[in-house]
Design goal:
Blueprint: E1 3-12, E2 25-33, E3 38-43, H1 47-55, E4 58-60, E5 63-64, H2 66-70, H3 78-88, H4 90-93, H5 97-117, H6 121-124, E6 132-140, H7 145-157, E7 162-166, H8 174-188, E8 193-197, H9 204-214, E9 219-223, H10 231-240, E10 244-247, H11 254-263, E11 268-271, H12 278-291, E12 296-298, H13 304-314, E13 320-326, E14 348-350, H14 363-369
Parallel strand pairs: 6-7, 6-13, 7-8, 8-9, 9-10, 10-11, 11-12, 12-13
Antiparallel strand pairs: 1-2, 2-3, 4-5, 6-14
Length: 372
């Protein structure tokens, strides 16, 4: 079997709001083979930058479009292909969007392998730790503390035992920050886990002050309170508070995660399969976290392709903590572009059992949302 084509497809909603909701557009990767088997992947990044990294022509031996690198290869040779992409992409792809582009291709290759062999990806990865995984409802904060509390109550009534709120309007001032968390806890009630995503808004001193204030509301973790490169700030914060500090969605590749774990001393390692290098690299990152006694969780705020990939990965590692499941109500793209729709049942997601990823794109929706 040989790879014959790699297609980077940019999808976009007719209206994109000015907010931190990466589910309003999507970059889907489709890899075709001469055996008639097609795999799909996704990249949550700057979509057109990723598309350029995939579609671009050969410039020189360390700067080459990824499609040109992988066409003609055997899709089963995922480790070899990963290193070939990295070497031919090393100028632009050691970090960031061009590295993210490798992730989408790698996910699609594992999808091809699973489809060809008739087994789910998690089985290829040697997994089988779970039949289902607890998930948390993941949403942006409401526009006000009161609106946030109403959202929390709604998610609780839907059966979720864990709920996360993040980003704006967190970070405006101390009073608003505390009110957002207070009302979220009030709406969620006791006995359920409340997760807070600060959205990169503070320095380490302010983050510690907020962590101390939020402790009254028994939060499960405090996510990304600092800018991604502030490893020293993360270390000071993590060592000063008993609240779990979670981070990692901004990282790409195991070297970045080593800095976050060893220098930043975080408590929960968050890995986005569509940014970190795909399954091939995510397994290595999880192993490094396991060696350090750290739990891992996925990051995934885009489509059900991302979440499905994460479920396969979380089922293949011993230190999976919980799965992110987006419930952001303003986004409709994720409900349209795949034939299968994921649904939580009493706060859990079932592990996919179909060959490959076990999810398929809806061609009509692809045509409807495809951006020129």
């Amino acid at each position: 079997m040989k790879i014959t084509r790699v297609e980077a497809i940019y999808l976009r909603q007719p209206e994109v709001r000015f907010q931190c909701d990466s589910g309003q557009d999507a970059l889907i990767v489709r890899v075709e083979t001469d055996a008639g088997i097609t795999g799909i992947g996704e990249v949550d990044s700057s979509p057109m930058a990723v598309k350029g990294a995939i579609d671009g022509p050969f410039s020189h031996t360390t700067a080459c479009g990824l499609a040109e690198i992988v066409v003609g290869e055997d899709p089963f040779e995922t480790e070899k292909i990963w290193h070939k992409m990295y070497r031919a992409n090393v100028y632009g792809g050691r970090r960031g969007a061009a590295f993210h582009a490798m992730s989408g291709i790698d996910i699609a290759l594992w999808d091809i392998k699973g489809r060809a062999l008739g087994v789910p990806v998690w089985k290829l990865l040697g997994g089988g730790f779970h039949k289902r995984i607890r998930c948390y409802a993941s949403s942006l904060f409401g526009a006000t503390p009161q609106a946030t509390g109403e959202l929390a109550s709604r998610f609780r009534d839907q059966g979720f035992s864990a709920v996360k709120f993040g980003w704006d309007p967190m970070g405006q001032d101390e009073q608003t920050d505390i009110a957002l968390v207070r009302e979220a806890r009030r709406g969620l009630g006791d006995g359920a886990d409340l997760l807070i995503d600060a959205g990169l808004v503070w320095d380490s001193k302010t983050a510690l002050q907020r962590a101390n204030a939020f402790a009254e509301y028994d939060i499960f973790w405090l996510e990304e309170p600092l800018r991604p490169d502030d490893y020293e700030g993360y270390r000071r914060l993590a060592e000063a508070t008993p609240i779990r500090i979670a981070a990692g969605e901004e990282e790409s590749g195991r070297q970045s995660f080593l800095d976050l774990m060893d220098r930043g001393r975080i408590d929960v390692v968050q890995v986005d399969l569509t940014r970190c290098g795909g399954f091939t690299e995510a397994m290595k990152i999880a192993a490094l976290a396991w060696d350090r006694g750290l739990p891992v969780a996925n990051h995934g705020f885009t489509t059900y392709i991302n979440v499905t990939a994460a479920l396969h990965w979380l089922n293949s590692i011993p230190n999976a903590l919980i799965c992110e499941f987006v419930t952001e109500e303003e986004t409709n793209l994720r409900e349209q572009i795949t034939k299968q729709k994921l649904r939580a049942n009493e706060g859990y997601l079932d592990i996919p059992q179909e060959p490959g990823l076990g999810i398929d794109i809806d061609e009509e929706a692809i045509q409807r949302y495809r951006a020129a």
